[in-house]
# Entry
Amino acid sequence: MDLLTIIYLTYSFISLYFLIFYLIIYIPHRKEILFSPKITKEYTLSMVVSCYNEEDSIGKVIDSLLNSDYGNIKKIIVVDDCSKDNSWKVIQSYAKKYKNVIAVQTPANTGNAAGAKNYGAKFVDTELIGFTDADSYPAKNSISNMIGHFDDAKVGAVTSLVLAENRSKFLEKVQVIEYKMIVFMRRLLSFVGGVYVTPGPLAIYRKSAFDKVNGFDGENLTEDIEITWHLVKEGYVIRMSSSARVFTIVPKKAMVWFRQRIRWNMGGIQTIYKYKRFFGTRNVGMLGLFILPFFIFNWLLGLTGLGILSYRIGRTILVRYLATMLSIDSNVAVATFGDINLTPSILVFFGIMTITMNFFMIWLGLSYAKEEGKRDGIVRVLLYMFFYVMTYPILLVISVFRVLTGKTSWMTK
Amino acid sequence: MIRLGDPRNAFWEAFLLTVIVFIFGLLIGVAVENSRAGNLEESYENSQISLIDILTLDSVSNLGNLSCDSLIGSNLEFADKIYEESKILNNYDNANKISNEIKLVYKKYDLLRTLLWSGALNVQSQCPDKFSIVVYLYQREGASVDEKASQSVWSKILGNLKEKQGGNMVLIPISVDSDLSSLNLMVSRYNINSYPAVIVNGNVFTEPVSVEELENYLEGKSLIQLN
# Structure
């Protein structure tokens, strides 16, 4: 057996392991995916919305929160991070109109979302503190579907089902599928204590837990990942509510999408580096035993896959190019049917098995995030599976390069 | 399957199930590969008998009772047969990733083809200017990018040549990876330093050339006397 075959088989084994792992979690919990515990106690809650240059959406976000069916939202604190557009005027108009909307402005631009959120948190004195991005619209019943989880004293935070709001262009439509898959996988991971992020569009924290970890890390590009790992390290459990839907604006343009994904990856690298000493350790719960290894393994898997694919494609292109030049010189056909070898190998068998299982997981994930009147076409799913996902390891390589060269400045949308 | 409240079981259960599925997959793969090798072994047994038959014929030809046409015809027929078998062998060899059974079959076929080459040279010496011998020497494993490209083109060139010449030439592809002493000895007489290499009636080519250019050497059908 040659080295490449060994690498392929190892890669197939790891891919299969993750897929089987998700299936093993899914099967006994399939009826609980959309479950949300009923509200037994109406905890006091304050919502913090940080805003920077979001004049087009901030009003609608505040409206969504005002429209929530949860009856104990004491304050909606909207933090303007010294926007250069009319966001502050919009926020002030809401504050004038609604008593529970509080408009605050940071003394100076904080330079990142964490800074604005932490500033807003200073004005919170309720049992729970929630955060929404200034371009994300929680559904009416989202918050009430999250509250019941806090009856468990170990719960430090509850995250929601983030879906794409805008979906007219191709890039937006593919992200719709991506977001649905992310939340499905995250829901499965919540059953094993493996939730590794409480995304910005909508997350609620126990205020005492939030204070214990000193809020968000202002140095981190993905403060929502960092705070989650910090909470888990402190022994808190993170839950996810699949019935708490929040719709967020996703990038429409490739360059904006690219910068967002680089930021996510760089933030992930920063967070791994910050918590690296807990890898494999038991005394920090699932952070050391699962979250860190899971993150790192997934990235290694992606990078290895990229490496193998690049090598194979590169070699094939080179051989074909040279063969074409020689064929032309020798006056023979450049390609013939004899060049195609349809004899399948064991690697093809594993590849087909992995792809089939992947497809099944995607189908499952999409079925749990179904939206009335909206369908995810098969072509889009295939493009997501075979092309969109291929960008992940490339983005990771670029992110690693940026981190290593010290380019860690905040990259806004 | 999972005891609620003890999520870590999921990791071990998934690992165990993956190992089972993986081993099952490997076993199927090994079974398929061995089955292919088995089929080829059968073909090889038949080819071996045919070759012994031809070599016997070649030795009997010294008695003077056999025509060149019969000798050449039987050699050609045999060469064509194992040429077709070698295409299947090639495909299987590319697809087999785990077991080494095919490699052994490959080695046996290389030996068979080396014997055919030797026998064909013998017949050619007895029946000069009647047919051509084209031997294609290539690397099955460890070929560089250049060598792979070159081999791919040579395969097409020789395929076209064989199609054009039909019964006028014996085409014998032999991989040089099998480390056969007899093959190494035969090859050493041509001072070949790189592969792939094609020997047309004793003339060596290492860079791909056109079919027409090769045909010039076929028409001459000159035989380089081996020392």
